[in-house]
Amino acid sequence: MPLVLFWFFAVVMLVGGIAVVSLRNPVASALSMVASFVGLAGLFIGLNAFFVGIIQILVYAGAIMVLFIFIIMLLDLKIEEKRAPKLAPLLGGLGIVLAFTIQLIGILSKTPDVESKPLDLTIASTHFTHSSPGISTKLAAGHLPDVNLIGDILFKGYNLPLQIVGVLLLVATIGVVVLSKRQPT
């Protein structure tokens, strides 16, 4: 990924994240979260994680944000009234940002700038020989089947947690609809 594109997507992501916290309108805040997700997807695609980048757009910027917008509209949230900022939380937040920045600079200054070794796909193919022969043959041929590999691991190794998360999302959506219904007065 060219350095210019990296900085562009990083700035889009950071500005979107700051706007999520700083904007008072809930719908504008949710839409700036979409901008942050788009910047993150651009960074994923720049790292050659095409599947994760596209899923970031489809799932988070698409489906989850539509769900957030519907919930915001169902709850009929109003713009928050402006209050005078208190000094203690502001200084505490700035102190945390400063401490994190110092730690990040300290870690990055000690990290060697070394190229990573390419993956040895033939060794990885032996891991999937018995469980998924299709993935094993693709790995042995030198192709990295990321969608097949993610699906295989997700549905064979984490099927129960995946189903639990789906049920929890359904219950949360039903709960929001029930809570947002207006009581007759």
UniProtKB/TrEMBL annotation:
Any Pfam family from its record, for instance, is Oxidored_q3
Question: Coiled-coil intervals in this record?
Answer: none
- Which residue windows are transmembrane per the record? 6-23, 30-51, 57-75, 87-108, 160-179
Q: Does the keyword Oxidoreductase apply?
A: yes
Q: Which UniProt keywords apply?
A: Cell membrane, Membrane, NAD, Oxidoreductase, Quinone, Transmembrane, Transmembrane helix
Give the Enzyme Commission number. Answer: 7.1.1.-
Localization recorded for this chain is: Cell membrane
Tree of life domain = Bacteria
Report a single Gene Ontology molecular function: NADH dehydrogenase (quinone) (non-electrogenic) activity
InterPro entries (alphabetical): NADH_UbQ/plastoQ_OxRdtase_su6, Nuo/plastoQ_OxRdtase_6_NuoJ
Q: Which reaction does it catalyse?
A: a quinone + NADH + 5 H(+)(in) = a quinol + NAD(+) + 4 H(+)(out)
Membrane topology type: Multi-pass membrane protein
Q: What does this protein do?
A: NDH-1 shuttles electrons from NADH, via FMN and iron-sulfur (Fe-S) centers, to quinones in the respiratory chain. Couples the redox reaction to proton translocation (for every two electrons transferred, four hydrogen ions are translocated across the cytoplasmic membrane), and thus conserves the redox energy in a proton gradient.
UniProt family annotation: Belongs to the complex I subunit 6 family.
Recorded protein name is NADH-quinone oxidoreductase subunit J
Q: What is the species of this protein?
A: Luteolibacter arcticus
